[in-house]
Amino acid sequence: MSTIVYLSRARMPTRKRPAPKAATRPAHKGRKSAPAASVRQEHRRDAAATRAGIMQAARRRFSRQGYDHVGVREIAADAGVNAALVNRYFGSKEELFAEIAASAFNIEDVSRGPMSEWGERTAKFLMGALPPEEDDGDFNPFQFLLGSVLSPVAAPIVARHLHANFIIPLAERIGTEDARLRASIATSYVLGFAMTRVALRLPDFRIADTDKVVDLLGDAIQRCLTGADAETVEPGSGIH
Asked: Cys-Cys with 96: which of 90, 101, 149, 171 at CB 3.0–4.6 Å?
């Protein structure tokens, strides 16, 4: 009897239930995750293209309308982006304008060749670079400058970059004691001609012989730069 009681009280072994398997998502056929490096590279490429598009749209707008008459929304619309992206990539309209101004005045366009022919090359460049009647909507550095010189915000930016990127390099090429003054006056010839031909559209420039204009303008600029009365400095003494 005691044996029966003992067996009845004994714990019978229980079968262990298998642990539930973790649920897995079915694999999508044909879908592969792109490597992280490839994604970053594509993002950088898209960002660079967006930035370049904004720059191109702004260059055209500022060239045609000037700084004060162009808004961020107009630039963004031309570039096909949201206006917030303009501020994201450039900070503000003023900073965007300054970045364009930094590369607008490149003296290399007329500096290839001897200094004794600088006036003639510049006159030819001006006659070719400044169509008096046509506006193709593209960027023109002279229209960019003339359209913004009256703006209290844009004018100091233009003056700073014009001085740093055009007048100073030209003065270094002149190499005389009064080189900066000569370079500044020569620049006034260039800008004055641009003003009268592009902004004021004087009729005489439309009917005048191109070669005659180049001769007269080129001679005036050249005499200012390297006239017989130029006071040269000793090599290596610098510009004062």
From this structure: 90
